[in-house]
Write a structure and sequence with these properties.
The protein is of the alpha+beta class and 279 residues long. 18% of the residues lie in helices and 44% in strands.
């Protein structure tokens, strides 16, 4: 009986010691009386620092530059469409004025500056040669002092000028242009052609007829890569037309009064700036 008790106690002690050794890694490495070998890791050897030079970006090849230029110019359109605002300076000199009352001065210049806008379409026949067709609208401001002088010189001086004496000028212009540098961002040009002008006024003092004449121009287009452009243009029109001073203005109430016809050299100088598109 004592032998059985001793055997049970010894077995219990052995099981307890084995469980403690398995759960606690800090205990001695003994399991069932056998020793375990401790594995050591290999030492880490650090490599010496070596300074490296960053690689330079590859230079653009000549072929790449050529392709860029080709992309810029390969889709050059044949059409330009422009919208321009302009300032008009006109001489408005009265010519062939009949004899009048020498006690008073002649009217001299009839109109002065004005403002307007136009649209233009340019078609390229070649890289350098193009044709432009434009249609504009402008007002020419008539001088009241000129009308007063005309009333005194040609009539009895009792006529009233009224408030609305401006002349509406609608020029239809066709020009042939030579584009000096047809490629690149800055493209100057010169041109010449002919213009027909519709002229109208609501004035009670005068009536103005239509006119026509040659025109010369010089300008430059500033082209961007998104098919838009900015433009600056100067045109000199050589324009004459007939102007009639109405009898009701010169001698109001006189039945024998007559209209007085004369010629006016308008010769407007148009300075314009605007934007446009390539097609």
């Amino acid at each position: 009986m004592n032998i059985v008790k001793k055997t049970l106690v010894a077995s219990t002690i052995l099981l307890a010691s084995t469980a403690l050794a398995h759960d606690n890694p800090l205990q001695s490495n003994k399991t069932y009386g056998q020793k375990t070998k401790k594995v050591q890791s290999a030492p880490v050897v650090s490599k010496p620092y070596k300074e490296t030079t960053p690689k330079a970006a590859p230079a653009e090849s000549q072929q790449d530059a050529y392709d860029y230029e080709a992309d810029y110019y390969e889709d050059e359109g044949l059409l330009l469409f422009k919208i321009r605002a302009f300032y008009t300076s006109t001489s408005g000199k009265i010519k062939k004025l009949p004899a009048g009352d020498t006690d008073f001065a002649k009217p001299g210049s009839l109109a002065k500056s004005g403002y307007g806008f136009d649209t233009a379409t340019t078609y390229f026949f070649t890289d350098n040669i193009a044709a432009e067709l434009s249609l504009g609208l402008s007002t020419l401001r008539v001088k009241k002092t000129a009308l007063t002088k005309a009333s005194l010189f040609l009539g009895d001086g009792t006529g009233t000028t009224g408030k609305n004496n401006d002349i509406y000028w609608v020029p239809l212009t066709a020009t042939i242009q030579y584009h000096i540098a047809p490629f690149g961002a800055i493209r100057p040009y010169v041109g010449g052609g002919y213009s027909g002008s519709y002229m109208h006024t609501n004035s009670k003092a005068i009536k103005v007829a239509n006119g026509h004449g040659p025109v010369v121009q010089v300008g430059v287009d500033f082209i961007s890569k998104d098919d838009t452009l900015f433009t600056f243009d100067v045109r000199q029109y050589f324009l004459k037309s007939k102007v009639t001073f109405k009898k009701g203005f010169l001698e109001p109430g006189v039945t024998a009064a007559r209209n007085v016809n004369t010629k006016v050299d308008w010769n407007p100088l148009v300075i314009s700036a605007g934007f446009g598109f390539k097609f």
